[in-house]
Write a structure and sequence with these properties.
- By secondary structure, this protein is of the alpha/beta class.
- The protein folds into 2 domains: 87 residues, Elongation Factor Tu (Ef-tu), domain 3 (Beta Barrel); 135 residues, Rossmann fold, CATH 3.40.50.80.
- The chain is built from 7 helices and 17 strands.
- The strands form 4 sheets. Strands 12-11-10-9-13-14-15 form a 7-stranded mixed β-sheet, with helices on both faces. It has a 4-stranded antiparallel β-sheet with strand order 1-8-4-5. It has a 4-stranded antiparallel β-sheet with strand order 2-3-7-6.
- The longest helix is centred in the middle third of the chain and has 13 residues.
């Protein structure tokens, strides 16, 4: 795999409306990335920002972007055929090799589901049984239903308001799934999951061998706690403000280990991530100042 630090200009080949305020941008470019990695995307005359890779095959790749800031809103206003610049792929990536079994759970919060959708496709290709928990505020923000069903992924949706799927937190559903498959007691005794016909035939169910998560800090921190409780390996994809992507500027360094999210991450093993002081407490803005999370 080669990583390029020199921006390459490419055209937007296709734009897909995924959900409210969320679009997928497809590029006819062979990237040779691994699930969990990201690119730096440059809009001429605007800025450059990092985006996780949501899809890749032999001839194209895609990113999925929520319009939440000036840059992403500018990208949403672009059309098929418009030109952007890319650098990368960069960063660490998800690793399936140390899973205890070939059954895994992916936990995505909001548009954090994007890099996990890439992982889901890759894991299915390599013969893994994949549970994919996708959470959002309402059904209007849920992602990738058609694509994941085509990939034969076991899809579990959660919404805060109960408008689609399970009403509640992704972490509650995660704990129940692990309890069902790994046979250990859980706190959430009153949570019920309706098993699919395929699940009903799986006797005994395969033990969950690893957890992968991408989403808000508080969700990731809770997933790490659940993984430790059930002794299941876990990796998280951590989001921080990245300027360069090459590890030079230091803006994405985390306390107290000083790890650079752009190069040492964005994927971290839970055993390392649980010692990152920032996680679940604060992040840093463009100036490097602390921005505390609401609790």
């Amino acid at each position: 795999m080669q990583t390029s630090d020199i921006p390459k200009t490419i055209k937007i080949a296709k734009i897909i409306d995924e959900a409210k305020d969320i679009k997928t941008f497809v590029f006819n470019e062979k990237l040779a990335a691994k699930p969990g990695q990201y690119i730096m995307l440059w809009i001429p005359g605007v800025n450059e920002k990092p985006f996780s890779i949501a899809y890749q095959d032999r001839t194209k790749f895609a990113i999925t972007v929520c319009a939440i800031g000036e840059f992403s809103k500018k990208l949403h206003g672009m059309k098929e055929g418009d030109i952007v610049g890319i650098r990368g792929p960069y960063g660490n990536y998800f690793k399936l090799g140390d899973a205890k079994t070939k059954s895994i759970v992916l936990v995505g919060g909001g548009y954090g589901s994007a890099p996990l959708s890439f992982l889901a496709n890759n894991a299915k290709f390599h013969g893994y049984d994949v549970h994919f928990i996708i959470g959002a505020r309402t059904k209007d923000y849920l992602l990738f239903e058609d694509r994941m069903k085509r990939s034969n992924v076991r899809l579990h949706y959660c919404t805060d308001d109960g408008s689609y799927g399970f009403k509640g937190f992704t972490t509650q559903l995660l704990e129940k799934i692990i309890e069902q498959h790994n046979g250990k007691s859980a706190k959430a005794k009153n949570i019920k999951i309706k098993a699919s016909k395929k699940d009903a035939k799986d006797k005994p169910r395969m033990e969950i061998g690893k957890i992968f998560v991408c989403g808000p800090d508080m969700m990731e921190k809770k997933v790490i706690e659940i993984a430790e409780k059930y002794d299941v390996p876990c990796e998280i994809s951590m989001e921080r403000y990245m300027k360069c992507g090459t590890g030079i500027c230091g803006n994405c360094c985390v306390d107290y280990k000083g790890l650079r999210v752009c190069r040492d991450g964005p994927v971290f093993d839970a055993k390392i991530a649980k010692h990152i002081v920032d996680l679940g407490n604060y992040k840093r803005d463009a100036k490097g100042s602390k921005v505390m999370f609401k609790k």
